[in-house]
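Example record used in the benchmark description.
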Amino acid sequence: MTISNTCPKCGEEFDDPRNFVSHIQTCDQKTKKSKYRNTPTKYKGIRYDSKLEAQYAEYLDIKKSAGLISYWLRQVPFSLPGNVKYRVDFMVVDEAPEATIIEYIDVKGTETNMFKLKKKQVEDLYPITIEIVKKGEFKIYGLR
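Model output (structure tokens):
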């Protein structure tokens, strides 16, 4: 039986059980179900908004290790009118000898109307296209 040292209220993880117990006694965040049923997940110590987003980050790391991409960034901001910021989940860069290719990717379980509006605004204001990746559209071999 494995004991989890993850706070059920805020999702913080602890290596030392004493710190975990101390934190649980003082954590003031209320347990709240996600509106879109996503589960915040950590990958390499970084918190992602969903399991799918964390899995995609792992997928990008595998592609980078295989030399298929040069690097990737997460949560890349774009300014929109009205002092609004939109953050695309991933910017993937492939610096091939013949050209540098940049892809902007959003990993989505649910496409809300607000997302569709902001995506359209970004694509109208900037010379980019945001690709939407959904569950099952990429495979990490050897993983579930």
